[in-house]
Amino acid sequence: MQPEDPESCAAFRHSLAHRLRYVRRERFGEHGLEALAELLKVSARTWTTCESCGTISGGLLLRFIEVTGVEPCWLLRGSGPRYRSASAQTAFSQNTRSKSHWFEHG
Question: Does the residue 1 lie in any domain?
Answer without folding.
Answer: no
